[in-house]
Design a protein that fits this description.
alpha+beta; SH3 type barrels; Fumarylacetoacetate hydrolase, domain 2; 2 domains; eight-stranded mixed β-sheet; five-stranded antiparallel β-sheet; 26 strands
């Protein structure tokens, strides 16, 4: 286990018990302030540790790399340095923030320059995303959707238990948390209509997902084995794959989602490293029938990450509509990336690979309104007296996630987005 993950560590920066950002986390992100350009920072409690300013002080000189990369507006070039550098930077930051270390703690003027309140900063999208893949890896979600739209007795399609189903999505419309999402327009067709019609979607939905970001590229023709995948993953973010269910229903045959998905996806701004999540690994579901050899793996590859979805109405009232967990995923990240590259598909630094909707076994753990309301048949009653079958204009959907063990809570912060006209 990395020294930075030691549950006994304490920071001299005040960190509230309910914070997602203790010294054991130290996620990376990109931020800017009213008095400074975009640069890379690390979250600690309610603050951002400004790595650009920290480097200028000389306190990062123990790690050899080009410090100018800390002044970039994305993490891509920093990540490209490799885990031997990014992990060393995380370890060094852990040392500097340790309650027993005086290198930074004892310098009041420097502390005031390198610590920025998160409330006074604007978070940016953490990476430039060259490519985006969305998987469909929750058995519970796939079963619910199959039962709803096909045959409840044969909800899963024949290939689902043999491979991690996925599709290539639209990277350009991935936006950082807090960015409004316009209600999409497109063709829809009710079962009773002879012809389709055009207009705004009436069934905008969220999808509760987690995405991993690749930090080590490959060449065209190369494949990545399940044993090698973790060396290629830099970290994870919360991901809301917004969907227009009525547009999707009409367009998805025969090639799958298009306009129903490409109008926007929201991501959380802090990238939690794979190393910070190491203590929270758990066994995944038993996979039957047995998978093909290239999808076999050893050890614990799922993660116990608690997830929730909250809907905030325009009136200011809110309700948590889902409690789920990343541990439910049938296909894990190692299998997903192994499958993605088994044909020689090359990957790039900054690529995002979303899990697909994360649904659990019970109705209160479903990861989309499509399932929660069962296609609109069972509306959610909101505290302001209104009801929701899907997401209304003015509604803000907030995803949260955290792992907790041995008194340590490692979280992602928020991933939010408001639907507007």
């Amino acid at each position: 286990m990395s020294k930075a993950n030691d549950p006994s560590l304490r920071s001299w920066v005040t960190v509230k018990p309910e914070s997602d950002f203790p010294i054991q986390n130290l996620p990376f992100g990109v931020f800017k302030t009213a008095t400074g350009n975009a640069r890379i920072g690390v979250a600690i409690g309610e603050y951002i540790l400004d790595l650009q300013a920290l480097a200028k002080s000389g306190l990062l000189d123990t790690v050899a790399f080009d410090k100018n990369l800390l002044s970039k507006d994305t993490l891509n070039q920093f990540i490209t340095l490799g885990k031997h550098v990014t992990n060393a930077v995380r370890e060094r930051i852990s040392e500097l923030l340790n309650e027993n270390n005086q290198e930074l703690q004892g310098k009041a003027e420097l502390k005031s320059r390198v610590l920025v309140k998160q409330s006074e900063a604007q978070m940016l999208k953490p990476v430039y995303v060259p490519n985006y893949t969305d998987f469909y890896s929750s058995r519970e979600h796939a079963t619910n959707v199959g039962a709803m739209f096909r045959d409840p007795k044969n909800a899963l399609l024949p290939n689902w238990l043999h491979l991690p189903v996925g599709y290539h999505g639209r990277a350009s419309s991935i936006v950082v948390s807090g960015t409004p999402i316009h209600r999409p327009k497109g063709q829809t067709k009710a079962d009773t209509d002879e012809m389709p019609s055009f207009g705004p979607s009436k069934s905008v939905d969220f999808e509760l997902e987690i995405a991993f970001i690749t930090g080590k590229p490959t060449q065209l023709g190369e494949s990545i084995s399940t044993e090698e995948v973790e060396s290629h993953i830099f970290g994870l973010v919360l991901f809301n794959d917004w969907s227009a269910r009525d547009i999707q229903k009409w367009e998805y045959v025969p090639l799958g989602p298009f306009l129903a998905k490409n109008f926007g996806s929201s991501v959380s701004p802090w990238v939690v490293t794979l190393e910070a999540l190491e203590p929270f690994k758990v066994e995944g579901p038993i996979q039957e029938p047995a998978v093909l050899p290239y999808l076999k793996y050893g050890g614990k590859k799922n993660y116990e990450i608690n997830l929730e979805v909250e809907i905030k109405t325009a009136s200011g009232k809110s309700k948590i509509v889902s409690h789920s967990n990343f541990k439910y995923m049938y296909w894990n990240m190692c299998q997903q990336l192994a499958h993605q590259t088994v044909n020689g598909c090359n990957i790039a630094v900054g690529d995002m690979y979303a899990s697909g909707t994360i649904s659990g076994p019970e109705p209160d753990s479903y990861g989309s309104m499509l399932e929660i309301t069962w296609g609109g048949k069972n509306p959610v009653q909101m505290p302001d007296g209104t009801e929701r079958k899907f997401i209304n204009d003015g509604d803000t959907v907030v995803l949260k996630g955290y792992a907790k063990k041995d008194g340590v809570r490692v979280g992602f912060g928020e991933c939010s987005g408001m639907i507007i006209e």
